[in-house]
Amino acid sequence: MNIGEVIKRRRQKRDITQAELAEMLGVTPQAVSRWEMGVSYPDIAMVPGIAQALWVSADELLGISPQHAAPLGGVLNQSQADSIFDYIPAAVSGEGKRVLIVDDSDFMRMMLEDILSKHGHSVLQAENGKECLHMLKTETVDLCVLDIGMPVMDGLETLKKIREEYPELKVIMLSALSSENNVKLALQLGAAAFVVKPFCAECLIERIG
Fold first, then answer.
1. Is the pLDDT of residue 157 over 90?
2. Which of 152 and 68 is assigned the larger pLDDT?
3. DSSP letter (8 states) at residue 53
4. Are 85 and 187 spatial neighbours (Cβ–Cβ below 8 Å)?
5. pLDDT tens digit sequence for 136-150
6. For 102, what's the count of Cα atoms within 13 Å in the CB-facing half-sphere?
7. Residue-level pLDDT at 73
8. Model's pTM, two decimal places?
9. Which residue among 154, 162, 173, 207 is least packed, with the fewest CB closer than 10 Å?
10. CA-CA-CA-CA torsion for 179, 182, 185, 190, nearest 10 degrees?
11. Is 66 exposed, middle or buried (0-12, 13-18, 19+ CB in 10 A)?
């Protein structure tokens, strides 16, 4: 279910109109209508406000299902993940790259495409690991940005297969499942970096290089 469908379902459950929700969020009713029809997506900065207005978790809005939730107490923040990877900030090259985004959330893929496009990168999308591997057979990309919690084939399994078939391809993990075990396993399997959701755009852009 994409973010527009969640917004519509939760809005109707709360028995509020598009105009009332728009007023709560400081946007136009037409904007809410476009979200619900899947024509456009709200800005990521609006997610906390939408979650509060609709009494829904940000995870549900972003398509992070309960079975994919990270265990309480076992989640690393970005600096902790960086320490495992021995990440050292480097200057961004400014060169446009061809990036394959792999995430089962429609909203997350569209948000990432918007962020990367604004920084001069071209973007391809896949909904899961199996689709990612299929696309890599026919498309040339500079790097992959992989979620972990996905149906059909999760990100860590996909990363392992990418390393076997495309050993030179750069892979960045982008996931809320930032347990110490997952971060260390991603490193062992050959990921170049691990970006923790929720993330800042600059953090991802720096690691793309």
1. yes
2. 152
3. H
4. yes
5. 999 999 999 999 999
6. 32
7. 46
8. 0.71
9. 154
10. -110
11. exposed
